[in-house]
Amino acid sequence: MCLAVPGRIMAIEGDDPILRSGTVDFSGITKRVNLSYVPEAAVGDFVLVHVGFAISTVDEDEAAKVFSYLRAMGELAELGDEPS
Amino acid sequence: MKFIDEYRDRAGAQAYARALRRITTRPWTLMEVCGGQTHAIVKFGVDTLLPPEVTLVHGPGCPVCVTPLELIEKAIEIAAKPGVIFCSFGDMLRVPGRDRDLLTVKAGGGDVRIVYSPLDAVALAERNPDREVVFFAVGFETTAPANAMAVFQAARKGITNFSLLVSHVLVPPAMEAILSSPAGKVQGFLAAGHVCTVMGFTEYEPIAARYHVPIVVTGFEPIDILQGVFMCVKQLEEGRAEVENQYARAVRRLGNQPAQQLVNEVFEVVPRKWRGVGEIPRSGLGLRPAYELFDAERRFDVAGHALDEPAECISGLIMQGLKKPPDCTAFGGVCTPEHPLGATMVSSEGACAAYYRYRRIPIASMEETRHGR
Ligand code: SF4
After folding, report:
1. Which H or E run includes B54?
2. Is the pTM of this model over 0.95?
3. Does B156 touch chain A if contact means CB atoms closer than 8 Å?
4. Which of B26, B167, B304, B368 falls between 20 and 30 A from B117, CA-CA?
5. Tell me: the pLDDT tens digits for B8-63?
6. Are B220 and B36 in contact (CB under 8 A)?
7. What CATH code would you report for B64-169+256-300?
8. What ipTM was reported for this prediction?
9. Distance from A10 to chain B by nearest Cα, in Å?
10. Which of B4, B194, B256 is closest, CB to CB, to A2?
11. Apex CA B280: angle with CA B144 and CA B103, to 5°?
12. Is the residue at A84 inside a domain?
């Protein structure tokens, strides 16, 4: 129900902030998406889309941290668990 | 798909599983709030990767499952009226009412349609000015901005044949209800990532402090969930009870403010009845008086008889984390996704449906399926 899927904005149309919409690409499938709630989003950005609305932009730096977290916590290195 | 596949990486998941085993010294019971997380946990077998001390119980986080029976009955009554186009997300169509569901209404000639977005329903209303278009607005905070926008656009365009049957519920009051229940055993929460995408997580800070319970805002992929569990267990082991954000790629502390503004414009906080749980004060959204023209319950005079759950259904206990689906005597026997007794067997995010789909085969073959992905 609260499913939201990440996709990349290909085009943005509409000057009216309420009707601001765009084309979002989900790995080859494109959909029209309402972009009113992500006024900061630009073409090329990834957004999370829920029932036809972008509800946030995806922060690429934060996205990568999930993979360096254990190392940053010292949980991998100190126990020789580093994947080779 | 970018931002999905990498979070399903097996080696990454196992690194988290190992790290969790190292830091866990005592039994802990955590609840994942969101049905999307429940589905992912059962589908990918995330719980089978956890140390034996860590138990995940499934929360009330499926809006389809918590929509009370009398509202389902109201939906069925409205959908059966001539001249009505009744629009809904697909999950609601098979939730059983007293003697039929919305699909039965459709099969009997009712104009019931599955839409992808509430804006599709507004467009239908625009194209069919001689019909009444009703959208079944079911959801948590995640979906509220979309429904608010549908009403707001309809109001601005002067569309008068559009209305919402509102069943909007809010997550923090349900978490408080679970924490204050004497039978409760939840020691930490994985908060629902997309709810927090909209609302941020400041609302959880007083809850974490008051009940001394760690709350970790968590995403939906296996590695997200494992990291969320790790962060939560680490807090418990260290005696901390803070709100942390695992899902920072999509969640900011204050949430999505333009979305919150429109939700506030259109909706107000009201008491709501949760199926299987009962009425919780200030736990839902209803249309503000300025938008009451768009309220389907006012527009159509429908009774919505109060109904009792089938006696054997324990979905209320399951959604409070007190029981698991296999504890129900009806599970997989008289209650299946084809013939559901309770709503948690209908929605793919309901705990019963997830267990039915992924847990009737032995865990050993589950492992193979999972590793073969
Ligand atoms: S298995 Fe069916 S009857 Fe049992 S709790 Fe789940 S929905 Fe209710």
Report:
1. strand B54-61
2. no
3. yes
4. B304
5. 888 888 999 999 999 999 999 999 999 889 999 999 999 999 999 999 999 888 88
6. yes
7. 3.40.50.11740
8. 0.89
9. 15
10. B194
11. 55
12. no
